[in-house]
Amino acid sequence: MIQKLVAGIDIGGTNTTFGLVGAYGNILFKESVPTENFPIPEDLVAVVCEHIRKAMKPFENKYVLAGVGIGAPNGNYFKGTIEFAPNLKWYGIIPLAKLFNERLGVKTTLTNDANAAAIGEMIFGGAKGMKDFIFITLGTGLGSGIVVNGKMVYGHDSFAGEIGHVIMFPDGRQCGCGRKGCLETYCSATGIKRTYSDLQMSHHEKTNNKGKVADAKYIYDKVIEGDKDAIEAFNYTGDILGLALANSVAYTSPEAIFLFGGLALSGDYIFKPTIESFERNLLNIYKNKIKILPSQLKENDAALLGAASLVWKELQ
Fold first, then answer.
1. Average pLDDT of span 216-245
2. In this structure, is the dihedral angle defined by the CA atoms of residues 211, 213, 218 and 220, taken in order, positive or negative?
3. How confident is the model at residue 180 (pLDDT cuts 50, 70, 90)?
């Protein structure tokens, strides 16, 4: 009996990862190419499609390619386009789903990378069986995907759910979106680095990183050592994140909130202050009802599984 495989593609500012994914999240093939090497999107599409065709050959007697799922920055689910993505060298509106469809001849579905990961959590991760949840990615910025009644919230234009750009402090830190005080400028790898640096400056202390610029991993290592500024930086970050998530609950009343990404891997150092702030700021009718949980997607495979899950969700 011929079974189905789905091609998952994650378009990143640095690398594009792609592979073949089975119905249970089993990855049969995985590869990546530098996105930066392809200033013309059609050239990237041609190379990725060629790799996918070659990868399918050993499986032709057992599998058929059932579709392509793409996660990309500023991805428009309704139109299948990438629109004015700031971290890509491609300018304007790119009809990426159409380009892949024309070359591979199968239905292609595209959404932004955080939404794709959220669907991946629902199909292959900890949100299995849940119809209402929020997915948060804590990376360089803060991405999010909101699922209500089993469906991703896209809004009228496919760009709903940008929790990272809720303004927490008017006239606060400058954000890459052009505004000030956005959540992601405080609750992200970039944000906690800024917080830690500010704390050290305010305490007139010199860093002991021998000239290296402190990153989130460095701050995590310092908190393990008991560094007071690192502990305060994590507590401050969690306090703001918990407040933002408590406000988000008022819109959708989710069953759970999943945290994913490098910062989430710091465990209780970020989860404990976040949960404390979350419960403290919740409306009474929501208290002690909503779990804040670590994602069950593997860090290295999450983007690929998320992209593939766009198609698997439709097939299911």
1. 96
2. positive
3. very high
**pLDDT of amino acid 205:** 58
Q: What pLDDT, on a 0 to 100 scale, did the predictor assign at position 210?
A: 46
Verify that 41 and 63 share a domain, yes or no. yes
Q: Which residue range(s) make up the domain with 265?
A: 129-294
H helices of the chain, in order, are 41-56, 96-104, 113-124, 189-202, 216-224, 228-252, 268-281, 302-315
Same domain, 92 and 193: no
Q: What phi and psi values does residue 91 have, to the nearest 5 degrees?
A: -105, 150
What are the C-alpha distances in Å from 32 to residues 26, 45, 288, 300?
A: 17, 12, 42, 12
Same-domain check for residues 144 and 285:
yes
pLDDT band at 315 (very low <50, low <70, confident <90, very high): confident
Query: Structurally, how many domains does the chain consist of?
Result: 2
Confidence band, pLDDT 50/70/90 cuts, at residue 108: very high
Strand-pairing partners, residue 135, are: 145, 258
Report in angstroms the alpha-carbon separations of 191 from 118, 183, 263: 22, 9, 10
Q: Are residues 79 and 169 in the same domain?
A: no
Quick one: 252 and 310 in the same domain? Answer: no
